[in-house]
Amino acid sequence: MDWGMKNRLSQIIKDDGKCMLLPIDHGYFLGPTSKLEKPGETIKPILQYADALFVTRGVLRSCVPHDSNVPIILRVSGGTSVVGKDLANEGITTSIKEVIKLNAAAVGLSIFVGSDYEHQTLMNLANLVNEAEEYGIPVMAVTAVGKELEKRDARYLSLCCRIAAELGAKVVKTYWCENFDKVVNGCPVPVVIAGGPKTDTELETMEFVYDGMQKGAIGVNLGRNIWQNEHPVAMAKALRAIIHKKAAPKEAMDIYNETKQKGKK
Questions:
Q1: Is 97 a catalytic residue?
Q2: What is the architecture, at CATH level 2, of domain 3-229?
Q3: Going by C-beta distance under 8 Å and a sequence separation of 6 or more, which residues neighbour residue 1?
């Protein structure tokens, strides 16, 4: 692995081998998502707790402070919307030249295994890896399932993650599921946990993150469960404790509640 690739990965994955990635790329297919109508305002209080920000080039340019020292993972796939026919019909939206110009530490795109556009999205990944490797830029593959949430089981996600790694992804973002260790053990590159829809309680989020970390994930790529929370700073600090300090869910809840109370004063 070249120095440049190692350096970029070290910006995202910290010295302890863990990472807390903050995605705010939802608008590329969802539009102005609740609590993300003004991305710059949303991230202002919580950006300091993120190890990297997953974002599109448009929002990066218009909403992220240029003097921010938080590494950028650039979302480079898109071309569909939630009101369109099929979310899986994605293409590459951003050139490697643009990635370099924006000083991104890594790039990310979605793959839709099992969909009508499986081949297209897997070739998007393969072609992106071919280009990105030329410049020492790591690629994160996102195992997207579109609207078919029932696909989130260990057998399916193991298949997705392994294929992504085989095609050259340096990191894979996937959903937590029962028997998550089977997903991680079958993937030869680091796995980060996706959040999906906002959970019903804070403890529920902390429990699945903790379980995923215990079963081999190196971190999370959670958005809505942080910035849609009524107390996003408290949630960010609690999750960071699980990831970087090995806090158990109950300890994390104590951090959440303590931070929440301080915020009310």
A1: no
A2: Alpha-Beta Barrel (3.20)
A3: none
